[in-house]
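Table 4 source record.
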Amino acid sequence: MADKEFPRGLIVKRPHPNAPDFIKARVSIKRTELIEWLQSKDKDWINLDLANSKNNTLYFAVDDFEPKKQENETKAPEPKETDNLPF
């Protein structure tokens, strides 16, 4: 398994015990660190997983999954001239 990458400047915590039930987490953003980290990326989209550590703390980790391209992908057959005939 590859090393996990964690976004800089983005912290997630469990909600305060007195928070309403619809609050699932608290996210803190250190704007300058997060902007710097985002600017170091070359992709338009960055996917993050919200995970639970072994010691029960929440954290964000970068989801860097990219599907493998199949070398033997079959292309759709080219239409024949007779395919457009009205009869």
